[in-house]
Amino acid sequence: MRQLEGIKILLVDDEESILQFLELGLGNEGAIIKTATNGEAAISIAGAFKPHIVVLDVMMPQLNGFDTCQRLKENGNNIAIIMLTAKDDVADRVQGLRLGADDYLVKPFSFSELLARIHARIRNQFPMLLSAVRYGDFTLDDRRKEIKLGEEVLELSPTEYELLKLLLANHGSVLSKTVILDKVWGYDFGGEQNIVEVYVRSLREKLGDKEHRIIRTLRGAGYRMDL
């Protein structure tokens, strides 16, 4: 199953090598791709193409990513914008988010991380476009609130489902207990961080992950799901 079948993505970057790499990778996932090497071209293409997702570089000549983001959002397009930046600058991230960006990635980034961010944006803004998403041997159907391992439907509590969904969507990346608590239990959760360990242990039992090869513990850092 190709995970992005029918999803329209506009890639905007003045580096041809990055455009080619992302176009190939996302195209192999089934996405419909258009590319632009500058902001003005991106705005023109978006008007007719009507992308679901725009992957937008910040540092471009002429019209930069911030101005492009603002104009795309002002045009009333229902799009999700993921901005790319070459530096991990909090001020840049804040500015982009204030102008309407939906997410941020710092270069260099892994393709799997970008793919996970794209899926997150689709689930949030275009859930009707995704019936089921494959992550290795797992199949996640968010409309049915169901996760399969192989052909077997996992018997999960609502909290276990949300935790496993978070780990799957961010597979390959380390998630701290603080991030997990915020995403699954909510920022105002008043309990102990140990609750994360309890639920991870329960998930491992249901996945038959006795060796902790699927959900790995990185001491002092958090958890990483490997597929």
Automatic annotation (TrEMBL):
One of its GO terms (cellular component) is protein-DNA complex. It comes from the Bacteria. The keyword Transcription applies. Pfam families: Response_reg, Trans_reg_C. GO terms for biological process: regulation of DNA-templated transcription. Residues 130-227 bind DNA. Keywords: DNA-binding, Phosphoprotein, Transcription, Transcription regulation, Two-component regulatory system. InterPro entries: CheY-like_superfamily, OmpR/PhoB-type_DNA-bd, Sig_transdc_resp-reg_C-effctor, Sig_transdc_resp-reg_receiver, WalR-like, WH-like_DNA-bd_sf. This is DNA-binding response regulator. It comes from Paenibacillus montaniterrae.
